[in-house]
Amino acid sequence: MRPRILRFTLVLIAASLSSLSAHAQSETDRLREALRSATAQTRQLEDQRTALQAKLADAERDRTTLKAQVDAAKAEVRQVEKQHREAVEEFNRRLAERDETLEKWKTAYEEAATVARSKDAERAKFEGEATAFKASTKSCVAKNGQLVKAGRELVQRYRAVTIGDTIVAREPVLGLRRVEIQNQLQDADDKFLDQKATP
Q1: Burial of 77 by CB count in 10 Å (0-12 exposed, 13-18 middle, 19+ buried)?
Q2: Residue 171 gets which letter from DSSP?
Q3: What is the pTM of this model?
Q4: How far is CA 7 from CA 11, 13, 16, 30, 167, in A?
Q5: Are 169 and 178 in contact (CB under 8 A)?
Q6: What are phi and psi of 198, to 5 degrees?
Q7: How many CB atoms lie within 10 A of CB 195?
Q8: Long-range contacts of range 153-157, CB-CB < 8 Å, 24 or more positions apart?
Q9: How confident is the model over 99-150, as pLDDT tens digits?
């Protein structure tokens, strides 16, 4: 019986060993498969990490580029704001100068208008005086003509006087000729006085 038990024990041990061996083989295969899978996952994760690092580097480059662009844009905005402020200040300065010049022109225009009105009044006054002087001059010219005529008549009478007329004029008794001469002298004097120019 012992050999049977032994045999049975051996068979059991062999079966156990075979089962263990099969089980060990299957566990090894499973571990190998797990190792292969883990290695593949590690490679895949490593590839993903490399890709993510490349993306991170690209993102850093983009961030640096964008930061430089933002800084340049800020500098440009500051420059534009400065130019705008300067342009506004220049515009306001020119506007103030224009207003000041306009005020000067307005004052000068008012002064010129006052002078023009004054000159127009003087011109009207002088035109009135000139008209009066022209009329007075015409009158004087006419009276001068009458004086010349009266003077010539007097000169002609004086030339026409003879010695006989002088003796008759000095005739002491009746004095007729003398009265006639005095009347002629009085007429000549009246003509001269009539032609006297009045201011």
Answers
A1: exposed
A2: -
A3: 0.37
A4: 6, 9, 13, 33, 226
A5: yes
A6: -110, 140
A7: 19
A8: 153/188, 154/188, 157/184
A9: 999 999 999 999 999 999 998 898 888 888 888 888 878 877 777 777 777 7
